[in-house]
Write a structure and sequence with these properties.
Helix content: 25-40%
Low-confidence stretches: none
Number of strands: 8
Strand order of the largest sheet: 1-8-7-6-5-4-3-2
Number of helices: 8
Strand content: 15-25%
Mean pLDDT: 96
Cofactor: Co(2+); Mn(2+); Fe(2+); a divalent metal cation
Enzyme class: isomerase
Distance between the termini: 11 Å
Catalytic activity: D-ribulose 5-phosphate = D-xylulose 5-phosphate
Shape: globular
Protein name: Ribulose-phosphate 3-epimerase
Keywords: Carbohydrate metabolism, Isomerase, Metal-binding
Radius of gyration: 16 Å
Largest sheet: 8 strands, parallel
Structural class: alpha/beta
Length: 227
């Protein structure tokens, strides 16, 4: 079944606890952490993650768009994140970092910017619980989905299948009711959605609608046969 992770980057920051409750049916709550260095924007940090982890029963999926994740990522596990994603472009020692995140009790995830190919990192895949393919340039919400990422999603799914891994494949950026089916058909099974959820009149209903579309597309996808 597809997993839907609403992004609080699109929520009302003055009402984060309420906004988290508004998507109680979501699988994870996606928290974008930006440092104004790795990406040109500044958002949430460790104290907000700590507060959110106390305010919601939905597990937190923290996406670190920051420099030096080797130093900072473990703190997000300690703050309550159930999954921590670092960017391979920023990590000095991605295998060591993934192992440290796992050792602290969270799922380890690695993200790729749109221009970063998956093939050089094939050997790292067994060290991960999830791989995130950015379908926009990281840094800001509300961007248009990049269709040119679909072949990359397919190639990544093929590598996951080749190695027989139980690795989640997440997409983030421009995911909506008009794009989620293409992502699912290509091989994604975890979907970050920001404005498509929090811009809706009923965020919980939007989560359910996105999941239904993704599940339907997955059922007819070649990669999911026998999955």
């Amino acid at each position: 079944m597809a997993q839907i992770n609403p992004s609080i980057l699109s929520a009302d920051f003055a009402r984060l606890a309420d906004e988290a409750k508004a998507v109680d049916g979501a699988d994870w709550l996606h928290v974008d952490v930006m440092d104004n260095h790795f990406v040109p924007n500044l958002t949430l940090g460790v104290p907000i993650v700590e507060s959110l982890s106390r305010a919601t029963g939905t597990p937190l999926d923290c996406h670190l768009m920051i420099e030096d994740p080797d130093r900072w990522a473990p703190q997000y596990v300690e703050a309550g994140a159930g999954s921590v994603t670092f960017h391979v472009e920023a990590a000095a020692a991605p295998v060591r970092l993934a192992r440290e995140i796992r050792a602290k009790g969270a799922r380890a995830s690695m993200a790729l910017r749109p221009a970063t190919p998956i093939e050089p990192f094939e050997d790292l895949l067994p060290e991960l619980d999830m791989l995130l393919i950015m379908t926009v340039e990281p840094g800001f919400g509300g961007q248009a989905f990049l269709d040119i990422m679909l072949p990359k999603i397919r190639r990544t799914r093929e590598l996951i299948s080749k190695h027989g891994l139980e690795l989640w494949l997440q997409v983030d950026g421009g995911v909506s009711e008009s794009t989620i089916e293409r992502c699912a058909e290509a091989g994604a099974d975890v979907f970050v959605a920001g404005s498509a959820v929090y811009g809706a009149a009923d965020p919980a209903a939007a989560v359910a609608a996105l999941r239904a579309k993704a599940d339907a597309a997955t059922a007819g996808a070649a990669w999911a046969c026998g999955h």
